[in-house]
Amino acid sequence: MPPLNEDDDFTVIMRFLRAVALVVLALATLAMTVAMFWRDMGIASFFDDWFGQWSEGKLTAVAGVMAIVSIVALRVTQKSEDRYRQRSRIR
Question: Mind listing the pLDDT tens digit for each residue in 11-45?
């Protein structure tokens, strides 16, 4: 394995930040989906404090958009990791 240089340090930091952002986005999407499900089931939850004033349509639209954004972000991260692996093999 070749020695690390400044570019590798930056790459590692960016990979870490991208992974953290992806986890946060996935958790926010899960929270929106659970809030939507619990509202549909009539279960009172702490999500009512956050999303209680939102209409059904708005909650559904935001949860759907967040799910799509999460999938796209995951795919972009996968492509980035593939590029990183290929670049590492070339060195």
Answer: 788 888 988 999 999 998 888 888 888 887 877 77
In whole angstroms, give the CA distance from residue 47 to residue 33: 11
Q: Could you give the count of Cα atoms lying within 13 Å of 2 in the half-sphere of its Cβ?
A: 10
Interior/surface letters 39-69, b for 16+ CB within 10 angstroms, e for the rest:
beeeeeeebeeebeebeeeebeebbeebeee
Residue 2 identity (one-letter amino acid): P
| CB neighbours of residue 29 within 10 Å | 21
Model confidence pLDDT, tens digit, residues 53-89: 888 888 889 888 988 999 998 898 888 888 877 877 7
Classify residue 20 by burial, with Cβ atoms within 10 Å: 0-12, 13-18, 19+. exposed
